Amino acid sequence: MEHHPAAARLTEAAASAVQQHGTGNLLRIVLIVMVLGCVLTAWFLLRGYKRKDD
To answer: Whole-angstrom Cα distance, residue 43 to residue 36?
Structure first.
């Protein structure tokens, strides 16, 4: 498995956020991203049902 510098930076940023502000802000960000991901996934899956059958 290769080492990904972007993943390392993301992990480092998350660890820094936890040290500076506690877990509350990180949890809030994770929840917001999860909700947005669910909305985008639902939109992507349901947009196919919009076709008109003539």
So the answer is: 11
